[in-house]
Design goal:
The chain is an alpha+beta fold. It has one domain. Helices cover 43% and strands 23% of the residues. The chain is built from 5 helices and 4 strands; from the N terminus they run H-H-H-E-E-H-E-E-H. The strands form 2 sheets. The protein has a two-stranded antiparallel ribbon with strand order 1-2. Strands 3-4 form a two-stranded antiparallel ribbon. It is elongated and about 65 Å long. The two termini are 38 Å apart. It comes from Planomonospora corallina. This is HK97 gp10 family phage protein.
Length: 115
Amino acid sequence: MSVKVTVRLDRAALERLTVDPSSSIPRQVHARVILTEARAKHLAPVDTGRLRSSIYTDGPRRAGPRLRWEVIAGVAYASWIHDGRREYRRGTGRIIRAKAGSRPFLAQALGEVFG
């Protein structure tokens, strides 16, 4: 004996669920974004604490038919630490680029929270 199941999706209803910030799906995504921010702050390397304190969440914002959240590290050197690049000037005024060990605290936090 076989069983057949047919699933029909109402695309318009799904889009309304994902675009309305008060619906369940965006609330769950927002909660995970906040967890990602907290985890990124925990994973960020600390020297003075400026990098860690600059991490914040921006959103939700509408981006066409979608909602968008961003977790941002707001200091200028955040990408150098995250990606492992350093730029500095020597006595000649030239910019020297050196590869340092990367510490991808944002990517790691995103992977841990969203899997």
